[in-house]
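Dear support,

I submitted the protein below through the web form. The confirmation email said the job was done, but the results page showed an empty box. After a refresh the structure appeared. I'm attaching both so you can tell me whether what I see now is the final result or a partial one.
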Amino acid sequence: MTPLDLLRRIAEVEFTSIVDQTSLLGTKLRILLRDTSYVDVWVSRKLQGRFGFLWERRHLDGQVFRYDNFPDVQWASVPTFPYHFHDGTQNNVVASPFPTSLEDGFRAFMTFVQQRIGDPS
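What the results page shows now:
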């Protein structure tokens, strides 16, 4: 099972209250959410351990949330660098509140999304 397949299964099984549909789109996983926002997941095939999760909701309220560990020197002053969190906008970058492992970080990120959306049913 590939990392994206594993994360897809986690999304579909553990987050059914907010997940509407999942799709593999080339090198990323797209998770469509019940509030019409979506989460994109990218896992590097070349650089072991590199990943990013993006919750796109600009069309709803202008916000975007992203957790990634790409070593962008622009964020080198963040205490958890290279792990960092874009909190509401691309330029509001703070220390990561999520675990650093792919699977645990994904679960924590999706829990964050679920708490922000609430139970849509």
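Response: this is the final, complete result; the empty box was a page-load delay. Residues 3-117 form one domain.
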